[in-house]
Write a structure and sequence with these properties.
15% of the residues lie in helices and 22% in strands. By secondary structure, it is an alpha+beta fold.
Length: 189
């Protein structure tokens, strides 16, 4: 199967044959109330809003006939009565074409175009592999930062968390690590 056929098949799989609609009933304190989707929506599902204040959000609560969604962006222009629809199965399809690109949280390239789709969807909420079945940590990794290599040595395959207050240089440190580390691919999330 050639690349064009594969891309076409992926696009056809992503077409929604049914779309469930609701209406924005209220907006308060950064939360959007939507009527009409409570029978199908589940916590963590995605919604899209159509209208002057178009945008998207994530379902964070369901009460009786009311779905509460946290918006991904600004609420400017959003009004009660705007239409909202339920987005089925928003799993990303990672692709090697993503290497060297910066993606936004909604899976778009920084210039606004959708990111190229890979062969198969990957769930965002996948369970972690059982600890005894995970691959062991590899050789020591040269980070390009002598202070890290000395006081906080890292190994290939290791994951780390970086926690600190605002304005103390976390982003600068991540940038330095991404530029200097001995790796073929660096993923910063």
């Amino acid at each position: 199967m050639n690349i064009l056929t594969q891309t076409l098949n992926t696009a056809l799989e992503d077409i929604e044959t049914n779309r469930w609609w609701g209406r924005v009933s209220a907006i308060e304190a950064g939360v959007i109330h939507i009527d009409g989707l409570s029978d199908i929506a589940r916590i963590g599902d995605r919604i899209e809003i159509v209208g002057e204040g178009a945008g998207s959000g994530e379902v964070i609560a369901i009460k009786d006939d009311d779905v509460l969604a946290m918006p991904d962006g600004s609420l400017t222009g959003l009004a009660p009565g705007d239409r909202a629809y339920f987005v089925r199965d928003p799993h990303p399809r990672p692709s090697n074409a993503w290497i060297g690109e910066v993606l936004s949280s909604d899976g778009r390239l920084m210039d606004g175009r959708p990111a190229p789709a890979g062969d198969r969807p990957m769930p965002l909420d996948a369970t972690a592999p059982v600890a005894t079945e995970r691959r062991g940590i590899g050789d020591r990794l040269n980070t390009g930062l002598a202070i890290m290599d000395t006081f906080l040595p890292l190994c290939r395959g290791q994951r780390i968390g970086l926690f600190a207050g605002s304005g103390v240089g976390k982003s600068m440190l991540l940038g330095e690590l991404a530029r200097g580390v001995e790796a073929d691919i660096v993923i910063v999330a």
